[in-house]
């Protein structure tokens, strides 16, 4: 039986906002952060460039990305799977 290794790499879920690059997607990830003084939750948005080897993703898809070695100046994430396709 094959052993499954536990990875320490970060996994994030977000929405594809651009798929114009060849084998590259831009994923917007939203996180909730509590304001230290007001104790109110604030939405923070960050964009990550991820490697999509088969050009499977389209704009609006919900995807999971995982940390990976640097592939270019800004691309350090890899497409893990497509959670939900856009309609």
Q: Notable features of this structure?
A:
87 residues; mainly beta; OB fold (Dihydrolipoamide Acetyltransferase, E2P); five-stranded mixed barrel
Structure, explained:
- The mean pLDDT is 95.
- The chain has 87 residues and is mostly beta strands.
- It has no helices and 5 strands.
- Helices cover 0% and strands 53% of the residues.
- The protein has strands at 11-18, 24-34, 41-51, 62-67, 75-84.
- A 5-stranded mixed β-barrel has the order 1-2-3-5-4.
Task: Report the top-level CATH class.
Answer: Mainly Beta
List low-pLDDT spans.
none
Number of domains: 1
Give the % helix.
Answer: under 10%
Examine the coordinates and then state which fold CATH places here, giving the name of the CATH topology: OB fold (Dihydrolipoamide Acetyltransferase, E2P)
Task: Give the name of the CATH superfamily.
Answer: Nucleic acid-binding proteins
**Order of strands across the biggest sheet?**
1-2-3-5-4
CATH architectural name: Beta Barrel
Strand content of the residues, in percent? Answer: over 45%
Overall radius of gyration: 15 Å
Q: In angstroms, what separates the terminal alpha carbons? A: 39 Å
Indicate the overall shape.
globular
**Computed structural class:** mainly beta
Query: What is the quaternary state of this protein?
Result: single chain
Secondary-structure element string: EEEEE
Largest sheet: 5 strands, mixed, barrel
- Total beta strands: 5
**Please, what is the average pLDDT?**
95
Number of helices: 0
Subunit structure: Part of the 30S ribosomal subunit.
Function: One of the primary rRNA binding proteins, it binds specifically to the 5'-end of 16S ribosomal RNA.
Organism: Desulfobaculum bizertense DSM 18034
Protein name: Small ribosomal subunit protein uS17
């Amino acid at each position: 039986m094959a052993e499954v290794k536990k990875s320490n790499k970060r996994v994030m879920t977000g929405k594809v906002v651009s798929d114009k690059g060849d084998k590259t997607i831009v994923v917007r990830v939203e996180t909730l952060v509590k304001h230290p003084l007001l104790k109110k939750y604030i939405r923070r948005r960050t964009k990550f460039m991820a490697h999509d080897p088969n050009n499977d993703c389209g704009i609006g898809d919900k995807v999971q990305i995982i940390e990976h070695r640097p592939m270019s100046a800004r691309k350090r994430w890899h497409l893990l799977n497509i959670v939900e396709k856009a309609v």
